[in-house]
Amino acid sequence: MPPTAPSASDTVFDRVSALARETGAINLGQGFPEIEHAPELLAAAQRALVEHSNQYPPMRGLPELRAAVARYYVQEQGLAVDPAQVIVTSGATEALAAAILAFVGPGDEAVLLQPFYDAYLPLVRRAGGTARIVPLEAPGWTIPFDALEAAIGPRTRAILVNTPNNPTGTLVSRADLERLGALCEASDIVLICDEVWEGMILDGSTQVSPLHVESLKDRSVKIGSAGKIFSLTGWKVGWAVAAPALAERIAAQHQFLTFTTAVPLQWAVAEGLALPAEWHSEHRARYVAAYHRLAGGLALGGYAVLPSAATWFLTIDLTASDLESDDEAVATRMIREAGVAAIPVSAFCGDEPEKGYLRFCFAKEDATLDTAIERLARFRERS
């Protein structure tokens, strides 16, 4: 086995989901929406199966989808993107893999802001690189720029940022992106920005991407996901957007990873991205209501709920909720004693995990959330 290959041992995600299945617990750990998905896209995929070719599309994606991605960003974010900058991938994780492999090689370093999506660290290691981990400052999850600057060295090739952030639901501000731009310019670093939750901003804000920032336009990679925008997590249609020189390097990796993505789904996503802004607002509104339902219910039950501006997730502060700070231990107890599964935030960390926080998924039907709230209130009363 190559030394950079990740082990096949199970993760906290595996253990939590397995225990939830074993006990019949309500699973608020996995990001799996129960809320009605997008019937318009399902109909579009069905039509595409018989109305369009099912043979190989262009390696970089259907021209119609690449153009639709560019138009979507103008509509939703006021961001000018040329379709030539867009590379369609088999999900956002493949886009991340192609970007990391494009800019991080053996002996290189990449800086990761913790907590982070669990694929980042093994992908950096698979590329032969070394990860320098910089923890965000809890409970506000802000970027500690002094620590970040100290982590950048002569071998640093990339910084990985996630905004909106999973698991914290926080957004990186334009001011902080400007500061990141200055650091990247000074050290000639690429910023890989995981923006898959950009369509699920729940507080009325507009997504601010590194591509909005002048100093980052030619040194950033923007990662997007149709699965997250449309709540179709099994479709695995994503994309990377970058300046032409960076896009060429990403495409060279994508060529030998998956090469292409299911053509009917590409056609369907192109139609979905052309839906009016009102459709996207109504789609998000379901999640806004679900967020407030779970956050309010947990707060009434005595839990310290941290603000979440985006994603399908919210976190609770265990110590402030008068619970022990060992998040994995509390998560296990919640499954066995309350019948509700959550994910420890430490699962989104490297070798020195951030303890004391649990992540809950609120992308569920009202009845599911109400039952979970009742069970969790009784659990806290007994703890």
For this entry, give a set of tags.
single chain; 383 residues; alpha/beta; Aspartate Aminotransferase, domain 1; Aspartate Aminotransferase, domain 2; 2 domains; 4-stranded antiparallel β-sheet; 15% strand; globular; PyrdxlP-dep_Trfase_small
User: How many runs of DSSP E, i.e. beta strands?
Assistant: 13
- Determine Rg (CA atoms, Å): 20 Å
Q: Kindly report the oligomeric state of this protein.
A: single chain
The amount of beta strand, in percent, is 5-15%
- Total number of helices: 13
Distance between the termini: 45 Å
Taking strands numbered 1, 2, ... along the chain, how are they ordered across the largest sheet? 2-8-7-6-5-3-4
Number of domain modules: 2
Look at the structure and give the mean pLDDT. 95
Main beta sheet: strand number and arrangement? 7 strands, mixed
The CATH architecture of the largest domain: 3-Layer(aba) Sandwich
Task: Predict the CATH topology of the largest domain.
Answer: Aspartate Aminotransferase, domain 2
User: Helix coverage percent of residues?
Assistant: 40-55%
| Dominant shape | globular
